[in-house]
Amino acid sequence: MMTMIKRLLILLLTILIPYNTLAQSDEDFGIWYKFSSTLGISKKIDASISTELRTFRNAGTIEEGLIEAGAEYKLTGFLTAGAAYRFS
């Protein structure tokens, strides 16, 4: 009878201890939202703009926001040069 009680106690502790530590966590989950758009100016030149909102530890609090603008020039069929600037 005593071994049965010990096994039951060990089983309950194994189940309840991890649950208790997860209940004390203040962290939520993080999400990164991104919107981007590309405009073909000519056959060789493209312009792009993108915005991002980032949440790291709490999905309801925006921790970082940025806007990025750039341009690309197609030099050959396999080589493209580009530049971009990021405002954060």
Structure description:
This protein is of the alpha+beta class and 88 residues long. It has one helix and four strands. The protein has one helix at 2-23; strands spanning 32-40, 45-54, 64-74, 80-87. The protein has a four-stranded antiparallel sheet, with no helix packed on it. The longest helix is centred in the first third of the chain and has 22 residues, at 2-23. 0% of the residues are buried.
Quick recap of the structure?
By secondary structure, the chain is of the alpha+beta class. It is 25% helix and 43% strand.
Largest sheet: 4 strands, antiparallel
| Rg for CA atoms | 26 Å
Could you say which structural class the secondary elements and strand pairing correspond to?
A: alpha+beta
SSE order, one letter for each helix or strand: HEEEE
What's the N-to-C terminus distance?
Answer: 66 Å
What percentage of amino acids are in beta strands? 35-45%
Average residue pLDDT: 83
Q: Which residues sit in consecutive blocks of at least 5 with pLDDT less than 50?
A: none
Q: Total number of helical segments?
A: 1
Number of strand segments:
4
Strand order of the largest sheet: 1-2-3-4
Tell me the overall shape: elongated
Helical content band: 25-40%
Name its key features.
single chain; elongated; alpha+beta; 88 residues; 25% helix; 4 strands
Walk me through the topology.
Elements: H1 2-23, E1 32-40, E2 45-54, E3 64-74, E4 80-87
Antiparallel strand pairs: 1-2, 2-3, 3-4
